[in-house]
Amino acid sequence: MKIELSAISRKAQGTGASRRLRKTGRVPGIVYGGVEPTLIDLDHNNLYHSLRKEAFHASILTLDLDGKKEQVLLRDFQMHPFRQQVQHIDFQRVEANKKIHMKVPLHFVNADISPGVKQSGGIISHVMNDLNIACLPADLPEFIEVDLSTLALNHSIHVSDLKLPKGVESAGIHIGNAVVATVQVPRGAVEAEALAAAAAAVAAAPADAKAAAKPAAKSK
């Protein structure tokens, strides 16, 4: 998905200048990378709606800065504590031949046909919702698919089990053993089963044992 947004460079900086920008419906920001950082500002409404799109957070973006287009990544943004207002945003320029590190979302599929769900009545627990990856900008995926179709009860899918796109590798120490998703029996079902087993054990106990377990009758 190609996402493009427009920005203009700015000279004024500081808290007062940023406050004045926000009052006019603009958002102060900065673009890192290259020779030196560039101060920018963008239209608030366009930016706010773009931030609501999942792809905006894990895609190479085209930034039209003063009429010149360049490739950037979203690196950070700050929201107002209680208003739906973007306070500041950071972008980073990308180089075609230099690997980037990003978090990309995980999309879980085929949970309904998983043996652990369909045959054993388990539920899927998503341990991870995104994955740290490293790749060249041209290989950056919008998301990584996690196929749950073979996941059995009390089993897990690990990062090492994922089929990553060509040119993409997981990033982080020992991340290959990290659990992505697991399927387990619901806690309520486990507790109900334990109670049922206890009741069955009491019902199967010998009659004299049951009598012994009862408190002795008080004499009148």
Q: Tell me how many strands there are.
A: 13
Q: Could you tell me the mean pLDDT?
A: 87
Radius of gyration over all CA atoms, rounded: 28 Å
Q: Mind describing the biggest β-sheet?
A: 6 strands, mixed, barrel
What does this structure look like?
By secondary structure, this protein is α+β, with helices and mostly antiparallel strands. Helices cover 21% and strands 36% of the residues. The chain has 5 helices and 13 strands. It has helices spanning 15-23, 44-51, 115-118, 187-204, 207-213; strands at 3-9, 26-32, 38-43, 61-65, 68-79, 86-93, 100-109, 123-126, 130-135, 144-147, 156-158, 169-170, 179-184. Strands 1-3-2-6-5-4 form a 6-stranded mixed beta barrel. A 4-stranded mixed sheet has the order 10-7-9-12, with no helix packed on it. The mean pLDDT is 87.
